[in-house]
Design brief:
alpha/beta, five-stranded parallel sheet, 7 helices
Length: 173
């Protein structure tokens, strides 16, 4: 199996790498970090200030270098988690989720793994969700790993709201 692991260096991405290693020990994984050119950031942000004095090429080189460092860091975490991992870097295309899907296809990935912060409501609508978009548009299986804090909160919520059962699983009457 070939796995594409989206990695941005966040604690949530690290948790996804660890979970992936626990589930797919010994499998091949490509750790992908997507970076974005500075001009694209400015355009997307709608920032109208004069940026003529900035060296966009130098800023882009530094961004790409940070992305390589992040991807290699993620591959190191993946190897420590038991995966046979390599790193990969891609410049953002139209969207991050489209870039992830393009890279998964290019890598021949059988599975895409992403972490998620578990944003809900307005935050999710405003900030968007790369993991949700990848899931909705993917042509291959996607594993979305919730952050440890979100997973713990959800487990506590489920346990607190679980209806008592007259015949719990694993017991007989």
């Amino acid at each position: 199996m070939k796995i594409l692991l989206a990695y941005d260096g966040s604690p949530d991405a690290k948790a996804a790498v660890a979970r992936c290693g626990a589930l797919f020990d010994g499998e091949m994984a490509t750790v992908l970090t997507v970076w974005e050119g500075f001009a694209e950031v400015l355009l997307r942000a709608g920032n109208g200030f004069a940026a003529a004095s900035l060296d966009f090429d130098e800023i882009d080189r530094a961004s790409e270098e940070r992305a390589h460092h992040s991807a290699e860091e993620g591959a190191g975490h993946a190897r420590a988690a038991g995966l046979v991992a390599s790193s990969r870097v891609a410049r953002r295309g139209v969207t991050i989720w489209e870039t992830v899907l393009e890279q998964a296809a290019e890598a021949g990935a059988d599975l895409i793994v992403l972490g998620t912060r578990g944003l809900t409501g307005v935050k999710s609508m405003v900030l968007g969700s790369t993991s949700r978009a990848v899931l909705q548009h993917a042509d291959r299986p996607v594993l979305i790993v919730p952050s440890p804090d979100i997973a713990r909160h959800r487990a506590e919520h489920l346990a607190a709201h679980a209806a008592p059962s007259s015949n719990p699983v694993g017991t007989t009457s």
